[in-house]
Amino acid sequence: MKEIDLNDTVFTIVSAYPEVRDALVKLGFEALKDDKMLHTAGRMMTLVRGAKMMGIDQTEIVAVLERLGYQVKE
User: Fold this and answer.
1) Helix (H, G, I), strand (E, B) or coil at 38
2) Is 28 exposed, middle or buried (0-12, 13-18, 19+ CB in 10 A)?
3) Above 90 in pLDDT, residue 6?
4) What tens digit of pLDDT does each residue of 35-69 get?
5) CA-to-CA dists, residue 8 to 14, 19, 22, angstroms
6) pTM (2 decimals)?
7) H/E element holding 23?
8) E strand segments, 1-74
9) Is 40 helix (H, G, I), strand (E, B) or coil?
10) Any idea what the Cα angle at residue 33 is, between residues 26 and 42, rounded to 5°?
11) Cα–Cα distance between 65 and 56 in angstroms, integer?
């Protein structure tokens, strides 16, 4: 099973699992549409910090990732 750690950077997660990018954009991580943002801010931003900044419920992120077949580590 594929595992995603919410404390990893967005860049690390998307690099390992590119298919997750679209799901994150739909959840509200609109900046990930831009490759430059992924390669700059994404290298420093974790999913936990990004969710807090954008007001996205972390449990919703976990639920979506689990529906996609990922084991989520918090």
Assistant:
1) helix
2) middle
3) yes
4) 999 999 999 999 999 999 999 999 999 999 999 99
5) 10, 16, 18
6) 0.91
7) helix 20-27
8) 2-5, 70-73
9) coil
10) 100
11) 14
